[in-house]
Design goal:
The protein is an alpha+beta fold. The chain is built from 10 helices and 27 strands. The protein folds into 4 domains: 40 residues, no CATH class; 204 residues, Thrombin, subunit H, CATH 2.40.10; 93 residues, PDZ domain (Pdz3 Domain, Roll); 97 residues, Pdz3 Domain (Roll).
Amino acid sequence: MHNNKAILIPTIALLAGSAAVYSSQTLADSGISTTAETLVEPDEGQRHAMSMAFNISEAFSYAAEQIEPSVVHITTRTNTRRGSVNGGLGSGVVVDQRGYIVTNNHVIENGNSIVVRLFDGRELPADLIGTFPESDIAVLKVEADDLKPARFADSEALKVGQWVLAVGSPFGFDQTVTAGIVSAKGRGGLGPGSENAGSQGLQEYIQTDAAINPGNSGGPLVDLNGNIVGINTAIISRTGSNNGLGFAIPSDIAQSVMEQIIETGDVQRGWLGIQMAPLDPVLAHEMQIPGGVVIGRILPDGPAEEAGLESGDIITKIGGRTTENLVRLSNAIMLIKPNEPAEITYIRNGDERSVSAILSDRDRAQVMNRGGEYIENIGVGVIPALWRERISARRVREIEGYQIVDIEIGSIANKRGLRAGDFIVEIDGQQIPSADRLARYFESASSGMPIRIEFLRDGEPMSVSITPE
């Protein structure tokens, strides 16, 4: 077992200019002991190699200089009745002159007070604009002048083997820069053992061997232009420290989520209406394609059915993104906004074809697929559910009702304080027997007349009056 110690490593300084040849006598006269007869001047090949090494070093320095002024250190605190306690540490990156900062949701989710330290040392309180836990993205905002926002690059253009830098505050050490390459693209399902094990299995990641440690989360992964190609979010490690397996959310996903949060406070994602299956790699090789996803089943009345897709079709591209695996296809679909057309490339009976499909809103579609309804005039999606509460060791009380699974940002329900997860028990003192009748009850409400909703939140009974719009 090794103790954690700071180890000073001797360095070799390479001096610019003509290379000198030192004899052992010259070095001895200078008080330097050596067993070497001479330090030999590098030959032409060595000079070329050294020049390339210096060029790479300069490229790293340039990229670091471009991104460092945009990287911030984030501290969260949790304020309780007994006082304030430290929540966590992380990183973020300024992406807009107005003060918007992108970080990970898991960096800020356990704190109710957020402080950002800028590159120049200023410490500022930050407001939480919105989060999207599914992609582990959060957007903060600070009020400050002289900010230098970073630029996003196209993560689709990244190549495996390409140099990248990770910047952040590992273990609280601000503005730490590490270098590595893109190890893989389109990774998914990190699972237990990652720094952010709560990530969704179909979230897509860039894998890198640039050193990422606790505290790097939320910081940028950049190319040699200093532009963001990803947001560092997770590691896989048996020790909790870097093992060369770091993961970042691709910039196109992070940027899409960020822009929607800033513009509307909500994130809408597309839905195609298919059940998917992976394509056998042997079959993909025989077809001379890098991969694809097989449509296992077409869901009725969905966008795929309307577009004429069929079970057995192999999707290879959608919305300009290649779909080599389930992760890539899932994210390609969800990046397309509802009610917008998407060009789909697919293979049927060995022939490549294309079709345009108008995608639906994923959250609404999932509500309907689970036997629920979307109550338009208050802005909530509900599904039938059963609340179980243990009364004693032998008795469990069961309550039939409706769980809120989706709420539109800015809707009347959102403004009145209802949340996803709330369990509706009664409406105006009565139980409603079906989800469609519940929706009709709100739709037929008299103008200007409030409706009283009795609900449970974390087992606690609550109520609110809502006047449908």
